[in-house]
Amino acid sequence: MNEIKYCYLNGKIITVSNAHINLNDMGILRGYGIFDFFRTYNGKAFLLKEHFERFKRSAKILKLKMPISLIQLNNLMKNLLAENKLKECFVRMVLTGGESSDGITCEKPTFFILPENHAKLQNYIYSKGGKLITYDYQRKMPEAKTTDYAIAAMLQNLRKKKKAIEVLYIKNGLILEATMSNFFIFKKNTLITPKNNVLIGITRDFVVKLAKKAKFFVEERDLPLREIKSVSEAFITATTKEIAPIIQINDQKIGNGKIGKNTQILMELFRKYAQNY
C-alpha cells in the first residue's frame, strides 16, 4: 500500500502530519457533520458526480454551506492523486459545523478530503459468500450521510464474534440496510431492495441500473424479514465491497447456501465496468 502523505484541509493541500482540527470543532463536540466516501479506478474517481450530489443533499439537510463545486472537486482530486502518487485508493470527504465559541453554534465550518488505503473484504467472500447478523435499529436522518456511526462502531465486536461481514439493521419487522452497505435479494429473476428509511447508496443505485440493463425486474420496496425464507439469492453493495454475495443471515441459509447465478452476473458486469472506467 502507498503511504498517504497529502490531504486537503480548509482550502489547502497539506501533509497529513500537519493537518489538525480544533478541539472546539462541532464535529467532535456534537457529532455535527456529514461525509461521503468514494474510490478510484484506474486513477479516476468513480461516480464522482453522484457522490458529490449526495454530499450536497446531506449538507442542505444539516444546513451546512457547500465548500466546493463539482469542477473544483474534480480538479482537486487529480492534484491529490498526483501529490500522493496514487491510482487506486479510497477517498473520505468530510464537512463539519467547524469551530464553535459556545460549543453549539456553527461558526467556521471544517472541510477536508483524505485519501485512504482501506481494507477490502477477503477474496473468499466473493467466491464462497458471506454472513450477516441482524440488529434492531434505524439510522437517524437516513436521507443524509452524517458522521453519526456510533451504533455501527459499537456493533463491530459483535460482528467479528459472530464471524459476519456486516450487521443488517431491522426495524418493525422490515429489513433496512447494513451498517455500511445496502441490501438486495433475488426472488427468481426479480431484484428487490429496500428504499424507505435507508441511506441510498451510490453503489446501490449503480447496481440497480446495471440490473435493469441486464433485463432483470427491479423492485424498490419494503422488505419484511420473514421474506428472507423464500429468497433465492442475496448480496450487499458498498464502495469498499462493490457487490458482496450473502449466503447466510443469522442462522438462516439463503437459497441453497451458495452464490446465485444472478448475483454472479451482476458481479461480473460491475467488474467489467470498473476495469474499463
Protein described:
Strand 5 (90-99) and strand 6 (108-116) form a beta hairpin. This protein is globular. Strands 7, 8, 9, 10, 11, 12, 13, 14, 15 and 16 form a ten-stranded mixed sheet that branches. A six-stranded antiparallel sheet has the order 2-1-6-5-3-4. The protein has eight helices and 16 strands. It has helices at 26-29, 48-61, 70-83, 124-128, 150-154, 156-161, 202-213, 261-275, and strands at 6-9, 12-15, 33-41, 44-45, 90-99, 108-116, 130-136, 166-171, 174-178, 182-187, 190-193, 217-220, 223-224, 233-238, 242-249, 252-253. Helices cover 27% and strands 32% of the residues. With 277 residues, the protein is an alpha+beta fold. The protein folds into two domains: 6-116, D-amino Acid Aminotransferase, Chain A, domain 1; 124-275, D-amino Acid Aminotransferase, subunit A, domain 2 (D-amino Acid Aminotransferase, Chain A, domain 2), CATH 3.20.10. The mean pLDDT is 96.
List keywords for this structure.
277 residues, D-amino Acid Aminotransferase, Chain A, domain 1, D-amino Acid Aminotransferase, Chain A, domain 2, ten-stranded mixed β-sheet, 8 helices, 27% helix
Task: Offer a quick outline of the entry.
27% of the residues lie in helices and 32% in strands. The chain is built from eight helices and 16 strands.
β-strand percent reads: 25-35%
Between the first and last Cα atoms, what is the distance in angstroms?
21 Å
Helix and strand element order: EEHEEHHEEHEHHEEEEHEEEEEH
**Largest sheet at a glance?**
10 strands, mixed
Task: Quickly name the level 1 CATH class of the largest domain.
Answer: Alpha Beta
C-alpha geometry? globular
Q: Quickly count the helices.
A: 8
CATH topology heading of the largest domain: D-amino Acid Aminotransferase, Chain A, domain 2
Class computed from helices, strands and strand pairing: alpha+beta
Spatial extent as radius of gyration: 19 Å
The poorly predicted ranges are: none
On the 0 to 100 scale, the average pLDDT is 96
**Superfamily (CATH H level) name of the largest domain:** D-amino Acid Aminotransferase, subunit A, domain 2
Q: At CATH's second level, what is the architecture of the largest domain? A: Alpha-Beta Barrel
Query: Which percent range fits the helix content?
Result: 25-40%
Number of domains: 2
The number of E-state strands comes to 16
